[in-house]
Amino acid sequence: MSKNIEKFPKEKLPSSMSTSQLKMLGQQYENLHLNELFAAEPERFQKYSVHFDQLLFDYSKHRVNQTVLDQLVTLANAKHLKPWIERLFSQEKVNCTEQRAAMHWALRLPEGHTQFPELTKQVHLQLERMYVLVEKIHAGQYRGATGEVIQDVVNIGVGGSDLGPLMVTHALSDFKVQTEKPLNVHFVSTMDGSQLSEKLHKLRPETTLFIISSKSFGTIDTLSNAHTARQWLEKALGESSRVLKSHFVGVSTKADKMTEWGIAPENQLLLWDWVGGRYSLWSCIGLPIALLIGVDGFKQLLAGAHAVDEHFQQAPFERNIPVLMALLGIWNNNFLNMQTHAVLPYDGRLKYFAAYLQQLEMESNGKSVQRDGQKVELDTCPIVWGEVGPNAQHAFYQLLHQGSFSVTCDFIAPIHRYNADHFTYADSAEALVEQHHLALSNCLAQSRLLAFGNQALNAAELETLPIYKQYEGNQPSSTLLLQELNPYSLGMLIALYEHKVFVQSVIWNINPFDQWGVEKGKQIADQLLPILNRKQSDLSAFDASTRGLLKILLGKGE
């Protein structure tokens, strides 16, 4: 299915003419204030914003003008961005270190897509199997070993098998579908068992279904939780194949491992090795999402992402939102020396969005070796962090406004809320609309103050303002507005960031689809576990610090 791909040509980014121009511009713009840029171009919003479908992207509060943007687009062209976008969408093995394609975009191809008919058929075959299971559970036709209807579903996964589904189900909680009996979806990820223990105390074995989500079906975090869940069920319901068949669903690339573990073939949902974990929520890893918002809702999520796939492939770079997001990040990170980026949603439903992006961006582009095996010559992914904006205002906004670090920000908010048919608190609608407006006013106020500093204040107030109450401003930010937060617009939002990551990987000449930095720590943990389990006692292979800590943990320390 996939074709091999040549590595990037061996070129050094800093030696390119476009990069040299950007370095000179960066020296000019590093201390240029946004107040000056807005004074020079009063119509910056009209010039530096893009509307597409249900999204508006405003990047006018960045230290750019047309000259800078032209040079950034020149850089993208010099790095062959357009051909690389075509390669991403052509089944080639763009994941060069693992010799795999990266075809998460194929998971959201509409049924009957003519460009890749066989691929689309395979994808929809698995999605249809998931949809059948979802409808069966919703209708109360899927029953546990004792014949009772399933009312609680626990997703056991970690990383991409947890963060994506968790983020989306929380974000789309307003779109929960009605089921024959109330259905709750839970998530467990931590290997220490604390999350699972808390859940098991509140659940009934007879009505609980576990989803074991693991691409490799070998992740120790997930399998240790799955083993504990299995013991809990067998203690309550007895050891039998019926218990395993009725209370476990598996999602993996490894059918043989799922069968060996005890999951019935009819409860196995498959994905492919060309689906990266952090890009997998669009696949059957998204089963918890479909269980919450229903089959139609899940299809809308896919449709929103596919719309952005089309936009990404077709729009000119100057009006291409993910390309602009990526190039602005390159400008801030590599030429203005701003190497930390805050994600600030002004909607509590996006509580887990920053955590999701931390994996998507930092696991993808947290690399220091180019595709050609050479060390990178420029810094790659900035540190990504964030929180729901209204809460963050009372936590770390002090640092944003008056700290000594330059931080770039993404503000994200829905324009409308509490006026849709799915709204369930009609009696409180008016008050809640006012609360939504309160959140929006704070979103705009914070981005304004971060950008313009003292100039955003009342002139009379500023005359008597002591220095410790003043604001320097000049902190760049983007604002992403959604018409409303729904499955379609959330699909769009996620896909924007996916493609932003890819564009930046092309500019930095790195592979965004592997994560070798994660692997070695697991292997070292395997060396330590037998010692903590008192099956081995020789500590000589470890450094002095680790030996000392092991002795304390084993009760042998001073």
TrEMBL record:
This is Glucose-6-phosphate isomerase. GO terms for molecular function: carbohydrate derivative binding; glucose-6-phosphate isomerase activity; monosaccharide binding. Keywords: Cytoplasm, Gluconeogenesis, Glycolysis, Isomerase. Its main location: cytoplasm. Signal peptide: none annotated. Its EC number is 5.3.1.9. Pathway: Carbohydrate degradation; glycolysis; D-glyceraldehyde 3-phosphate and glycerone phosphate from D-glucose: step 2/4; Carbohydrate biosynthesis; gluconeogenesis.
